[in-house]
Amino acid sequence: MNAFDDRFLTRNGLAARQLAVLLLNHEPDTRLPRVRDYAEELGCGNGTVQAALQLLEESGAIGTTARGHLGTFLVHSDRSILWRLSGLGTLLAAMPLPYSRRYEGLATGLRSAFEEAGAPFAITFMRGAGARTAALLEGKVDLVVLSRFAADELIAEHPVELVADLGPATYVGAHGMLLRHGVDVNTPGLRVAVDHASEDLRMLVERVFAGRDDIQWLEASYMQLRDLFARAEVDATVWNLDEVQDRLGLDLVDVLPLGDEVTRELSLRNSSAAVIGRTDGTKALAAVRDSLDLSLITSLQREVLQGTRVPSY
Fold first, then answer.
1. Which of 34, 67, 140, 225 has the most CB atoms at less than 10 Å from its CB?
2. HEC profile for 180-213?
3. Tell me: the pLDDT tens digits for 50-93?
4. Hey, which bits of the chain come out as E strands?
5. Minimal CA–CA distance to 88: which of 145, 12, 139, 17?
6. Is the pTM of the predicted complex or chain greater than 0.85?
7. Cα(131)–Cα(52) distance, rounded to whole angstroms?
8. How many CB atoms lie within 10 A of CB 19?
9. Among 87, 114, 92, 65, residue whose Cα is nearest residue 20
């Protein structure tokens, strides 16, 4: 460890690392809290805070200027240095398997936006909103990406909260009912595939077929659908239309629109990508929340969808 790092292991250095967390939320040309306010928050003396601020300036993390009775202002800050000194580590987000171009674009946009905000960021891919939420609640990941439709249900049931809503068509383009060729949707005993690992698809398929006590439910993942339809073991399901033609094939199924009530819900919530975090939060999440450029995420996703950007995540 070099001499520069050694200074951040002293009492003044510890205060500097704690200040680095607080300063991640400050924009340039904003007035900083008074030294005694920082001292009270950190539980140390004024001299320690002053020495800590000097350490941060010498490291290139911040630049400040005194403006007389107006106080001390932050002139500039380097978020990547502040983040490194803070010791907050890497933010880990769990999102769906990148089986569609839309998900690849979403992963590309998220990575770029977090890096732009100065936060080390990594993605782990997990199938099923339930599994991703469990990982969040157990502290294995910091963030989870899922549909706004599923997010609202989970927020109502668990200590999680919405971090960002990226807007329509950022999670999926649309959903539709898939009906095997030659099958009438009103056929008694219709065999309907449902994937309980996917919270939004489960809710959608149960809502589409609500009120029918003749349905035969078959547990199946989206990876099994083509074989199940080809062997005539499934009659219908609801699925993400982004991948129907490429992965399932229109030679096996007819695609029917969902009902008006469901479609309205989809346009507002199910097609929107949502990012959630634990309600108790983490210092890392609080430090980056207000600095995320959501427009950067969606613009990069569009470029990946249009084929003008190579996915990078």
1. 225
2. ECCCCCCCCCCEEEECCCCHHHHHHHHHHCCCCC
3. 999 999 999 999 999 999 888 899 999 898 899 888 888 888 99
4. 30-31, 62-66, 72-77, 91-95, 121-125, 143-147, 160-165, 175-180, 191-194, 216-219, 236-240, 253-256, 273-278
5. 17
6. no
7. 42
8. 24
9. 87
